[in-house]
Amino acid sequence: MKKKELEILLQKVPIYDYPNPYIEQYMTPANIAADIILTAFGFGDLEDKKVVDLGCGTGIFSYGASIANAKEVIGIDIDEKVIEIAKNFAKSNNLNINYIVENVKDVDYKCDTILMNPPFGAQKSNRWADRGFLEKAFELS
What's the predicted TM-score (pTM) here? Predict the structure, then answer.
């Protein structure tokens, strides 16, 4: 698949109209997500693999992993509203993605590959949040 084709597909992932700045919710742009998905695919880290998308939001990386023929995809986010959006998108597009509401520090799903765009941990209320995501990624994959 060409990058532009993947970008067009990823642009279909719904946005979240009410992001919470305190937990640094922001949508990964489709062109950046496409780069990450294609790089992981090129390294053999997606096809026929169990993939976990930490802090999945509305599911752009989960969707990308599904497109790349991942064996199993799990999207995890602490926000029930974004998980509901992701689940509805997956259902309406016949995607086999399991979305779960859970705090990243409590996640215990072993996998082959982690995809994520973690919070920067720059907000005073969310200081060092990036470290928790990175540590969890090393623990799980």
Answer: 0.88
